[in-house]
């Protein structure tokens, strides 16, 4: 293993988004996930964005990704693990604005508390949305406030787990009457799957391939 591979995942993440290799990010989908491949015309999808809020690596604090548990009363994906974010609105100039606005509304993360370092490629969903993930660095120790109508819980997953491609496993779910293969990753009692896992698995894959 090279010295670079021994470095903290946080450092490798920052290097990746500072490099030229991330200037034109590729579309997100798991190679075996036909659910996402089934979306052909992205121009008809509604733009949305999510934020990946990652805490800064410090000597006494490992880096974490902030995630949410969706409220049980939501019409779609109730109780699932999610990234803060939502649908683009008229006042949003771009995906970054959408991700920051929605994060402030959902978990009380102020936009001036986020250092945006980059974005990933879009993820097209059969539910009719085209998601752009925005990656931002935040300081440790911030206090979050869950918007109860949308967020049941806020938790932190170690970045070393999220970016470890070997931590992900394949499973099967039923989609429109047929079994489909997805990826998922587990942290304590949390099962991260669906669109959130697809985004995180894509990021882990990109980081695993990246070399300075």
What does this structure look like?
- The chain is α+β, with helices and mostly antiparallel strands.
- Helices cover 24% and strands 32% of the residues.
- It contains six helices and eleven strands.
- The chain has helices at residues 3-6, 9-18, 34-37, 95-107, 159-162, 194-209; strands at 46-55, 64-70, 81-82, 85-87, 115-119, 123-124, 129-138, 151-158, 169-175, 178-187, 190-192.
- The strands form three sheets. Strands 1, 4, 5, 6 and 7 form a five-stranded mixed β-sheet that branches. A three-stranded antiparallel β-sheet has the order 3-2-8. A three-stranded antiparallel β-sheet has the order 9-10-11, covered by helices on one side.
- The longest helix is centred in the C-terminal third of the chain and has 16 residues, at 194-209.
- The protein is globular and about 50 Å long.
Counted by DSSP, the helix tally is: 6
- Low-pLDDT segments, ≥5 res: none
Please indicate the count of domains.
1
Order of helices and strands: HHHEEEEHEEEEHEEEH
Structural class by SSE content: alpha+beta
Question: What's the CATH H-level homologous superfamily?
Answer: Nucleoside Triphosphate Pyrophosphohydrolase
- The CATH topology comes to Nucleoside Triphosphate Pyrophosphohydrolase
What share of residues is helical? Answer: 10-25%
Q: Under the CATH scheme, which class?
A: Alpha Beta
Shape: globular
Distance between the termini: 15 Å
Number of strands: 11
Q: What do the pLDDT scores average to?
A: 87
Give the CATH architecture: Alpha-Beta Complex
CA radius of gyration is: 16 Å
Content of β-strand: 25-35%
Largest sheet properties: 5 strands, mixed
């Amino acid at each position: 293993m090279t010295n670079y591979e021994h470095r903290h995942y946080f450092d490798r993440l920052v290097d990746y988004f500072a490099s030229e290799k991330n200037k034109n990010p590729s579309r997100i989908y798991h190679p075996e996930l036909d659910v996402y491949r089934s979306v052909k015309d992205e121009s008809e999808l509604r733009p949305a964005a999510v934020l990946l809020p990652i805490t800064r690596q410090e000597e006494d604090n490992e880096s974490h990704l902030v995630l949410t548990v969706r409220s049980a009363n939501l019409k779609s994906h109730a109780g699932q693990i999610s990234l803060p974010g939502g649908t683009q609105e008229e006042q949003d100039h771009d995906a970054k604005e959408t991700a920051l606005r929605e994060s402030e509304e959902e978990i009380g993360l102020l936009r001036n508390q986020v250092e945006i370092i980059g974005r990933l490629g879009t993820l097209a969903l059969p539910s009719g949305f085209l998601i752009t993930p925005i990656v931002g660095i935040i300081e440790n120790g911030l206090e979050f406030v869950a918007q109860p109508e949308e967020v049941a819980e806020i938790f932190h997953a170690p970045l070393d787990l999220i970016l470890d491609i070997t931590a992900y496993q394949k499973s099967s779910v039923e989609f429109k009457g047929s079994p489909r293969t997805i990826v998922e990753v587990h942290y304590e009692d949390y099962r991260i799957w669906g669109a959130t896992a697809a985004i995180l698995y894509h990021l882990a894959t990109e980081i695993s391939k990246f070399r300075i």
